[in-house]
Design goal:
Radius of gyration: 18 Å
Order of helices and strands: EEEHHEHHEHHHHHEE
Number of helices: 9
Strand order of the largest sheet: 3-2-1-4-5-7-6
Distance between the termini: 10 Å
Strand content: 15-25%
Shape: globular
Helix content: 25-40%
Number of strands: 7
Length: 300
């Protein structure tokens, strides 16, 4: 599917970076459903506790799936259901509480979370080096510049173990060969986006790499290119999961660096949520083995 043209204008976001409102600006909650809807969580998990992790939430409505929330940190997401949580404008890192995240998603929407998709190496056994999953994805997508990072005992280390154990304790066991509800899966946005957009190679959408992407442009023009790419990705996501473009924060080249990074984290989380939906539809392939697998949508 070709990428659509981005919106022509972007307004600077002040205060909360991403919203969890519907297209009318009203707080979302599933209504007029013939049965309790299903929901999926997408998490762009940071590999350190000092950095924030994006969280996205999509709900299956009568007319199909809809993206209803995208937040730049665990605390920002939890605050959607618990208004007593005090937030700084700048997202911060924290240790995730799996049960609390699921409860917040269900309290906020009235839906039942059935699958959680996380962009982080996950395994039933200790991760000490590259896994079969990493090697299989790199073989399949390396030519399209989507090889995986090499995990180790320290990165992500205990953060990965604690995430997996936390979700398993909350009733979401790691799924590596077959998708069953409820469950937890590992995903990887780069090859997922290549499949979504039918791109020939990895999309240039990482804030930290703008100088590499556009060496001959000045910093402002690099940010303009980056923001345009984010809009294109959000528009592409909006076709299978309406509401995705609405959830993307509107940022400007003069926006603060943390605002731009928060927008990127929200976008990655939405990609994770979309992959979870595709997995439920039976449209994903697991790359790996019984111990660890990376689920990637196959669009063709």
């Amino acid at each position: 599917m070709p990428l659509e043209a981005p919106a022509a204008e972007y307004s600077r976001n002040l205060g909360k970076v991403c919203t969890a409102n519907d297209e009318n600006g009203l707080p979302f909650r599933a209504k007029n459903m013939t049965r309790r809807p299903r929901a999926v969580l997408g998490i762009d998990a940071a590999w350190t506790l000092t950095q924030p992790s994006g969280v996205a939430l999509a709900v299956e409505m009568n007319a199909g799936w809809r993206m209803v929330a995208a937040e730049p940190s665990y605390d920002h997401f939890l605050a959607q259901a618990d208004h007593s949580i005090s937030l700084d404008t700048r997202p911060s890192g924290s240790a995730p509480d799996a049960a609390q995240l699921v409860r917040a998603a269900e309290d906020f929407t009235g839906a039942r979370v059935v699958l959680v998709a996380i962009d982080m190496p996950l395994s039933r056994t200790a991760i000490v080096s590259r896994r079969t999953a990493d090697n299989e994805v790199s073989r399949a997508y390396g030519a399209r510049k989507c090889s995986t990072h090499t995990p180790s005992t320290t990165r992500p280390g205990a953060i990965s173990d604690n995430l997996r154990e936390g979700f398993e304790a909350a009733g979401f066991p790691l799924r590596t060969t077959v998708i069953e509800e409820p469950g937890l899966i590992e995903v990887y946005p780069h090859p997922a986006l290549v499949e979504l957009t039918e791109a020939s190679e990895r999309l240039p959408y990482k804030l930290a790499k703008t100088r590499t992407y556009w060496k001959n442009l000045n910093p402002i023009d690099r940010k303009k290119q980056l923001i345009a790419m984010w809009a294109k990705i959000a528009n592409a996501l909006d076709e299978p999961v309406p509401g995705s473009a609405h959830q993307l924060a509107r940022v400007h080249p003069s926006s603060a660096g943390f605002e731009l990074k928060a927008t990127e984290d929200c976008l990655d989380a939405m990609v994770c949520a979309w992959v979870a939906i595709e997995a439920l539809r039976g449209q994903c392939k697991p790359f790996g083995d019984e111990e660890a697998a990376i689920w990637i949508p196959l669009r063709n």
